[in-house]
Amino acid sequence: MSSSPLRVGIIGTGGIAHAHADALTSLRPRVEIAGVVDLDRARAEAFAERFGVDRVYPGAAELFANERLDLVHICTPPQTHTPLAIQAMRAGVTSLVEKPTALSLGEMDELAAVQAETGVPVLTVFQHRFGAAARHLAALAGAGELGRPLVATCETLWHRPDEYFDVPWRGRWDVEGGGPTMGHGIHQFDLLFAIFGRWSQVSAFAARQLRPTDTEDVSMALVRFENDALATVVNSLVSPDETSRLRFDFEYASVEVQHLYGYTSEDWTFTPAPGHEHLTARWADGLDSGAISGHRDQISAIFDALEAGEAPGVDLTEARRTIEFAAATYASAFRGVTVEAGELAGADPFVRSMSGGIVPWAPVKEVLV
User: Fold this and answer.
1) Whole-number Å distance between alpha carbons of 216 and 213
2) Which of 30, 87, 225, 268 is the most exposed place for a label (fewest CB within 10 A)?
3) Under a CB-based contact definition with an 8 Å cutoff, are residues 145 and 297 in contact?
4) Residue 163 burial (C-beta neighbours within 10 Å; 0-12, 13-18, 19+)
5) Percent of the chain with pLDDT over 70
6) Nearest-CA neighbor of 332 among 226, 231, 233, 221?
7) Burial 205-214 (b: 16+ CB within 10 A, else e)
């Protein structure tokens, strides 16, 4: 382990940046927050005072010019993620980008090209992969102890009132990238893929049911995996009884988690198939009781990798598969066809934009000036 603390910067000091800073603060003295950036100087200064940061910068260029950083956290609205991550790569700084990594597959490929040129990685926040229970499940499934993956359900049933979309950048394809498929349920189905493997086909529906948004407020997908497992994925912002639920049915056991914005080990249940009751003890023995999933788990894992000279996660290749699923969900819903993994490529409109330019309802958001 390094004898000196890792130095990080934070770009954007809005709501999600507090989750990052809380996690970083809990990891002191292993880490030092060297500086923060926000266009709103007063907000940045209040943030810096709260988290004990000495330096506030007006822009990313000033941060990179004045600080030696091991990692920069990009906590800004989605349309800024790609240009800021490219700026970080060209400054030689690894970035940890809030979801979604980029607004489109085209932007993901642009990031990959600059990463190949500079050799500097771009990481994505998919913290549910790093909770203790999820890591334990991934290890058991990866070792084949649970048998074949067969069936899964993945539900992000959340509620956002109309007022949620008063924020100017929300609910816009060109600024936010999409609705709950891109901005809310993505954490859940990313964990689904981390456990069940690569998806191969998706057939989906999407709708704007209630909310004053240009994007969908509900999507539903049927998914086939390369290993022939099947799953359903539901993403909603119109569900008053909020819950996040994942259920994995393997050959020898069912494993389920139900939570809202972050799970504890106690939120998981394990049910063995008849004749495999011994797996219950195997599941219980590997759980870290009381552990809570969150940014801290992923950030700590990134620090471990950086200090060991290893590749941290979640890297662009993994993140692209998750972003591709969102694009395929929209393409399937709006075209009315099943979409194969890898099908969206080249000049396909769904490579350039998650909307594909064929959203079947009229926009309602005012034009940004």
Assistant:
1) 7
2) 30
3) no
4) exposed
5) 98
6) 221
7) ebbbeebebb
Quick: pLDDT tens for 111-154. 999 999 999 999 999 999 999 999 999 999 999 999 999 999 99
- Lay out the sheet containing 149-159: strands in order across: 268-272, 253-259, 238-250, 149-159, 230-236, 218-225, 199-207, 339-340
Task: Give the pair of three-digit tokens for residue 224.
Answer: 């086939």
CA angle 176, 182, 188 (to 5 degrees): 145
Quick check: bond before 314 cis, omega within 30?
yes
Q: Supply the angle between the helices 41-51 and 15-26 in degrees, to the nearest 10.
A: 20
DSSP state of 367: P
**pTM exceeding 0.85:** yes
265-322 per-position pLDDT tens digit = 999 999 999 999 999 999 999 787 766 788 999 999 999 999 999 999 999 999 999 9
Nearest alpha carbon to residue 45 among 34, 35, 56: 56
Cis previous bond, 121, omega within 30: no
* Number of other residues whose CB lies within 10 A of the CB of residue 285: 8
Neighbour tally for 343: CB within 10 Å: 17
Measured distance CA(306)–CA(94) in Å, rounded = 10
Q: Give the strand order in the sheet containing 6-11.
A: 56-57, 31-37, 6-11, 71-74, 95-97, 122-124
- Is the predicted pLDDT of residue 1 greater than 50, yes or no? no
CB-CB neighbours of 230 under 10 Å: 16
Compute φ and ψ for 264, nearest 5 degrees.
-105, 170
Please state, in angstroms and rounded to a whole number, the distance separating the CA atoms of residues 94 and 302: 10
CB-based burial of residue 110 (10 Å sphere; 0-12 exposed, 13-18 middle, 19+ buried)? middle
